[in-house]
Design a protein that fits this description.
alpha+beta, 18 strands
Length: about 375
Amino acid sequence: MNAAVTNPPSAVAHPPQAAPDIRAQFAAARAAGKRAKDAAESLGLSEGAAVAAHAGEHGHPLKAQPLQGSWLELLQALEACGPLMALTRNESTVHEKTGVYRHVSATGPVGIALGEDIDLRLFFAQWHAGFAVTELANDPAKPPSRSLQFFNAQGRAVHKIFTRDATDLAAFDAVVSRFVQPSAGYVFGPEPAPLAVLPDADIDAEGLREAWAAMQDTHEFFGLIKKFGVERQQSFRLVEGQFAWRAAPQAVARLLDEAAVDGLPIMVFVGSGGCIQIHTGPVRNIQPLDTPRAQWINVLDEGFNLHLRTDMIASVWVVEKPTADGVVTSVEAFDHAGELMAMFFGARKPGKPELQGWRDLVARLPGVQELAHAA
């Protein structure tokens, strides 16, 4: 077993609250239509803490069995289950993709899944707890929801996996039986203080621009911002007009609408901190939804759903990164806390240049000034 991808030690617990009370209040919130995360937060708990309170014998609709072991081996075992729905989300955006977990591997604490539909980057150091969850539907005519749910040390969901009609449930049960550990006893700690951002004046902006211009692969960007001690949006500001441009908040909805009309294949990245989930291909059914509490843009395609809170978009950037295959352009949306909501690219394979149709689409987005590659 690779110790780097097993569970980290338990963190300090939340203030004690009786599990029976949590179960009853959580069930009431769910029956009222709240999402699991919102139901937990309405009780003053993280979602992970609320799920953990449902372990053991009881009569409430949600039941949780703690899991333990190598998360890598668990994900590898899922291939036998056939189609499953992978869900990765952050505060503003939910990415759902149905497919088979194939070609799952890891180097130390960093993993990857490279199936035809399930395409993930996995950061197992953030995977603190796992549960097999069964929840009865509000409608008794519907079957119960069955899932595997994984949380970080603060109780935020890093990845969830749901059964579908075509799932081999016997194989799914075998995975649960293999990794179930009733005595796991997971507890969760408070959110850490956010990392301080250095003032712009303390950043070697000229060195940053030179290193940016010398990039040969998009993956070099993560090492670049670490080397210069620069926050992501801060790096965009420091190279603005050369490698990064601001766009209007409505650019995200326009991007999805135009990609659907053009039939242009795109890549959609959504991260949770412990997982980045990727869709590659066209998007077709784009549906806005406004409610009294939120505004959404949704992709409702067979096999791929995206739900993004447009009312939470604080900034959108168009970013160019030089590579050996030419410039690669991303559109990146951030919320009011500065968290990355989602990233969009034109679909491309290594060794192939970026699609001209994608560059043309990005250049038309509202608020975008002339891009360097169009000059």
